[in-house]
Structures are given as C-alpha cells and as structure tokens.
Amino acid sequence: MNFLENILERLARRPQQVVLEELRPGGNTGATAEDLLRRISVARASLAAAGLRKGDRCVLLAPNGIAWAALDLAAMAGGIIVVPLYTRQAPAELVAMMRDAQPQLICCGDASLRDAVRAAWPDAPPAVLLDELFAARDKAPAAPAPLDDSDPVTIIYTSGTSGEAKGVVLTVGNVTHMLSCTTARLDLLMGPRAEPDRVFHYLPFCFAGSWILLLSCLSRSSHLRLCTDLTRLADDLRAAQPDYCLNVPQLLERMRIAVEGQIKSRGGLTEKIFANAKAAWLARQNGSRSGGGGVWLAVGRTLIFPAIRKKLGPNLKALICGSAPLTQETQLFFMMLGIPVLQVYGLTETTGICTMDDPRHVEPGTVGPAISGIEMKLGEASEILVRGPNIFPGYWKRPEETTKVLAGGWFHTGDQGEQTAAGNWRIIGRLKNLLILSSGHNIAPEPLEEKLLHAIAGAQQVVIFGHGRSYLAALVAGDVQRENVEGALSRFNATLPHYRQIHACHVVLQPLTIESGLLTANGKLRRDAIAAHFREAIDAMYRKEAAPEQGRAAARS
Fold first, then answer.
1. More confident position, 45 or 326
2. Residue 119, class by beta-carbon neighbours within 10 Å (0-12 exposed, 13-18 middle, 19+ buried)?
3. C-alpha distance from residue 519 to each of 56, 202, 262, 327, 539 (Å)
4. Which positions ≥6 away from 492 have C-beta within 8 Å?
5. Rounded to the nearest 5°, which phi and psi values hold at 430?
6. CA–CA dist 151, 79 (Å, integer)
C-alpha cells in the first residue's frame, strides 16, 4: 500500500474525527475525515472536468488551509503532478517557475493571486480559484488512480540561494518511504495513546518538510491546527496547546530571546533565580557539579521553569526544528525547560529529510542519526553524500544537473558535515559558500555568522564576505547601532585566530527580506544577490586591504 492509499483508507476508517482545523479570529473552521474525503472527491471531479489527466501538472498557489490539503490529495489521487508555489514570492519569480513546469491548470487561493499571475503572464494557462473548484456538485470515484512507486506526485522548486530555482521531482516511492520514517519517529515521541496527536502548524505547505508533516499527520491519528495569520502566531500557539509543532530556528530563537528579555525586565529575585539556575544547568551539561548551583537549579525547576513551560505550551512533548541549523544555545534553553528540541536535516531532493533526532537520545548541537533505510557518508571536503529510497529521481527538465548531483550513485548535498561517536550528524556549513582567502585559508561563513547574529542586539542577518580577499568583512542588517556592532566585533575577534577575524563592517538599518529578492522563499540568504546588491559597499570595505594585513603581520612578528 502506498502513502496515498494509506491516507485515504485511514480517513475512511475515522469519518467523524476532526483532522484539520483552520485557526481564525472570527471563529475556527474544522474538517472531519469525512468532510475532507468529500472535498477530495469534488476536487477530483473538477480537475477531470478541466481536462487534466495523469502526468499533467497543476500549480497550487494558495496559503495553508483545508482546501490546500484537499486539492493536493485530489490531484495526486488522479495521478496529476502538483506544483506547489509560495504565495509571498514576487509574481515574476512565480511566473518563471510556472513557465518551467508548463502546467495545464493554475489553482489560486484568491482573486488577487490569480490577477497578479495573469498580469505577469498574459498567455498563461487557465487560472481558477479554489472556491470554484470546490463549488462543483459532481464527485469522483473514491479509489485513487493506480500509481507505481516511480510515478511523480509533485515538483517542488528549490529556494535557489544562488541562481534560478530548480524543480525537484518527488515520486510515490520517495514519499511512501519518508512517511514510514516520520511516523515511526512520532510513535517514539508520543508513545501509546488513545487520543489523536495535537499538532500546531504555521509553515507553508509548499516547502518539502512542511508538506511531509501534513502528510504524516494524515497518515496517523492527528488533529492538525493551522495558523492562518502569522501576526497571531503566539496567540494561536497558546490556544492550540499542541503536543508538538514544526519550527524554523528563527522562531525558536525569538521565543528564547523574548522569554529571557521578560525575565530580565522583571528583575529582582526572579531574574536572580533564573540566571543562577540557568548557569547551574549549563554547567551540568558541561560535566561540572561543583559549588552551590544545585540549590539554584532546584529552585528554578520548582518556581521558574514550570511557569515558562506552561506559557509556551502546557502539553508540549517536543519542538521539532528544521530548514537551517539551530544554535546550541537555543536548543539547550528549551531542554532546560523540559521541552526537547528534535532537529531534522534534509533537502528537497531527499524528500525533505535525511536525519531526525531520536527522542530517546538527543545529542545537543547535532541533527540526529540517518533515517531508516538510507546511507550517509562524507566525500571530498567533508561533503555529505546520501543514497536510498528518499532520493529524488532528478530535476525537472535538467538532465545535466541531475547527473552532476547524482554522480557515482550518491546524492551530493553540497553540505559539509561530520558524524559524532554516537552516530549523530552535525552540519558544518555549505560547500559552495566556502570562503577562500588570498592567504589560502578556507573558512565556512555560517558558524561565524551565527555567533555574530546572537552577539549583536537587534541584528536580523549577518553576511560575511572575503572570497579571494585578504581578510573577512561583514554586512549586518537590522535595527542596530554601529557602535554596538563594532563593540561586538572587537569582542568577537579577540577569541579568533587572525585569519578568521572580521576587519570591516557595513551596517544596513533595515533587515533583508524575501520581497527585496535578498532572501529565499524560506528565509535563507541569497548570497549572490546580496553581493550584487551591496557591491559598492562591499568594495568600500576592501579599499584599504593592505592596512589590516599589515596589522596582522605586525601582530605575528
């Protein structure tokens, strides 16, 4: 039985259970399994009436919701290949991906999206609203179309940190294997229980990891609550009281900073207990039990930590985190509160996941062991190589690039990593981001950027440059003051060897954004675009390259 047959069968077995719920200010909207099956049937009939057949492409351009899930399942049940796109991307970027995918139909969440597509692409294929698709009265047969493991079910476009986005084709076999892995991990987390999992979700379904969570919830007994307004994210999370939710590092880091800021603003005994309890807890993580920290830790665990945990979510068994590396400081913070953070690592080409933390054995600072049934090893320059049933068959209409990344029968991730003695993987950096100074030193910028980001109050992004140059320089974006940036750099450099020190900086008072084209759809740095946009400022940081080099030479003499 493939993943789609399993989902439809499970829905049919629990018709009255609420499986999806949209959280809205004016009142929530829920869908039982029976409701979802009815919508899937109606959508299948509408797609067939529009002339779509097995192997055709259908663009899904809409925010998260019950309709999104129903249309996605309906299309796949008919053998139609879904092309999910991110609504926040610029129309020109969306059109470029749609032209590449050559869809037969474009399904939009609202009229403004449809009109934006038509304006940017006058000769586009038919574009219809989701409401129109679900307004039909006809219903399709309940059974899905026969599908082989090799049949494609989706084309997900990569975020394109440099260069144009590529369409990643994922198959029935890819997804079936992945869901067997994710549901097994969730079984370990939740243990035996009679009631459905309570899951909260806010990340767009058009991203591979987010989509896999949706399908995982539908593949097991879950009640998935969807945040439909990110400005209400904190309130919705508290109201949902989930057992777990999928997160990006940025949100967890903001949560940690907000909690610590609130405690600091209260001051007095509360701040003192928290600070001493945290110090004692971190000391124990480093193997130290000396001094009177045990008393402070006991008081913190009794008076402070439970109150914070209750405010964040009284039922939280874990926070799941993926898409980018999470700072160990933030992971340890939540662990201290009794909320484990389970990290996931993967790429769209690996069906979203390569490794997942085992809830029973979490090693802070790592992303867990390889998932069942796949192999991982290190290649040249510590590049992570992967093979197994989760690896995509290729990029849409890009055979040469497919051959390159699948050389030797292994998928070349482009990520640098290492494996710990416990078998867990740690991500070091991105191979193509490696900076090679004119001195010959090789430097991965990500670890330095991460540390600086947390050392500079108000910083939203830090980007380090230096490839082919004699020293490193940094661009700092956000609500920051230059003197604070310079002070942080001075303290930062004091801990580093000369070739990893940052000798110039440029401050941008506004954060980089997706809309400006400087971040990818899932918030990662578009380094080539940033370098081009700030070319003059970068060149200015290197106009006196000799001076830092002379200073370093003097220091070494």
1. 45
2. exposed
3. 31, 19, 30, 20, 21
4. 451, 452, 455, 502
5. -105, 125
6. 8
Check if the beta carbon of residue 120 is closer than 8 Å to that of residue 92.
yes
State the chain's maximal CA–CA distance in angstroms. 83
Select from 121, 20, 29 the least CA-distant residue to 71.
20
Greater confidence (325 vs 201) lies with 201
- In the DSSP assignment, the letter for residue 51 is T
Query: Residue 290 is which amino acid?
Result: S
Q: What is the CATH number of the domain that holds 482?
A: 3.30.300.30
Please report, in angstroms and rounded to a whole number, the separation of the first and last CA atoms in the chain: 70
DSSP string, 194-240: SSPEEEEE-S-TTSHHHHHHHHHHHTSSEEEEEE--GGGHHHHHHHH
Domain end among 431, 450, 485: 431
- Asked if 366 contacts 424 with a C-beta cutoff of 8 angstroms, the reply is yes
Mode of pairing for the β-strands spanning 244-247 and 167-171: unpaired
Find the DSSP H helices in 23-65.
33-49
Closest listed residue to residue 427, CA positions, set 534, 511, 343 = 343
- Note whether 101 and 224 are same-domain residues: yes
Residue 438 has pLDDT above 60, yes or no: yes
Which residue from 93, 169, 99 is spatially nearest to 399, judged by alpha carbons? 169
Residue at a domain's end among 392, 413, 431: 431
Number of domains making up the chain: 3
Q: Which amino acid is at 91?
A: P
Please give the structure tokens belonging to residue 489: 């750099």
**Three-class secondary structure of residue 148 per DSSP:** coil
Residue 552 CA to residue 470 CA, distance in Å, equals 11
Q: Which SS3 state, helix, strand or coil, does residue 429 take?
A: strand
Identify whether residues 135 and 86 lie together within a single domain: yes
- Distance between CA 124 and CA 246 in Å, rounded? 35
Residue-wise pLDDT for 401-414, tens only, equals: 999 999 999 999 99
Sign (positive or negative) of CA dihedral 309, 312, 315, 317: negative
DSSP letter at 303 equals I
pLDDT digits (tens, 9 = 90+) for 496-543: 888 889 999 999 999 998 888 898 877 788 898 999 999 999 999 998
Which residue range(s) make up the domain with 65? Answer: 3-243
Nearest-CA neighbor of 549 among 496, 492, 503? 503
CATH number at residue 195: 3.40.50.12780
Q: Is there a contact between 101 and 396 (Cβ–Cβ < 8 Å)?
A: yes
At 543, list the tokens.
């106009």
Say which DSSP state 403 is in. H
Closest Cα to residue 384, out of 417, 422, 351?
417
Q: Which helix (H) or strand (E) holds 442?
A: strand 442-443
Rounded Cα distance between 327 and 454, Å, is: 9
Average pLDDT over residues 394-400: 96
Two tokens, residue 419: 């494996």
230 class by beta-carbon count within 10 Å (0-12 exposed, 13-18 middle, 19+ buried) = exposed
DSSP 319: E
